[in-house]
Write a structure and sequence with these properties.
alpha/beta, 60s Ribosomal Protein L30, Chain: A, 42% helix, 240 residues, single chain, 2 domains
Length: 240
Amino acid sequence: MNPRRASMIVAGAALSLVMSFAVTRAQGLLFIGDLKDRAVAARDAAGGRGVSITFRDRYGWLTRHPTLSGGKHLSAEVRKTVAARIAAIPGISGVSWARDADGRSVSAHCQDDVERILETRTIRFGEASTRLEPSSERLLGEVARALRPCVGSVIAVTGHTDASGNQKVNVALSQARAEAVRSSLIARGIPGTNLRAAGLGSARPVQGLDPMDPANRRIEFSVLYTAPVKPTPIDTPGPG
């Protein structure tokens, strides 16, 4: 091939690549700009003026996982509502709070909220079944609302049983129940990407309880950490 023609082809390919990247970047800016407008509207509607919303990750890339900061004058309930309203916007893949002055992250706050909900109530199933009782369906709705501000964090759903019966069967049953709760949370709008289900059978009874006590039959939730956002040139919408 003629060297001049070859160099022209290479130059043309490079120009096409640059133009394609520029178009993608422009589309990404428009998309994120629209998300930010809707996030600001949701924040204000929830009474969260003073909360800053950043749609760039720590590397400076555009992201659909905004970080919230400020609003220290607001109550914990208002901050929770602001985060939940923003996380519910289609196209936003979860929110994170920047660490508070006390060093606690959004994960810690969500963990506290879930534990308060489950202090006096338990997620219950039919005997030897993975079918949730009606009262537990309502309880899971409350848990889902408490977890929504933590979308983007890894959330562990762990099933436990008492020590009665066959231990291998208990492990399998606790796993199936954890999976059932995970599916229920997904149905309530919690993305399944970072939901982890595990069954431990009777290996970890409640401290101070007899391992045979039926109160050991329970589901626990652990908000483990805020998942890091992988740096990409433009974080545009994708499946899920």
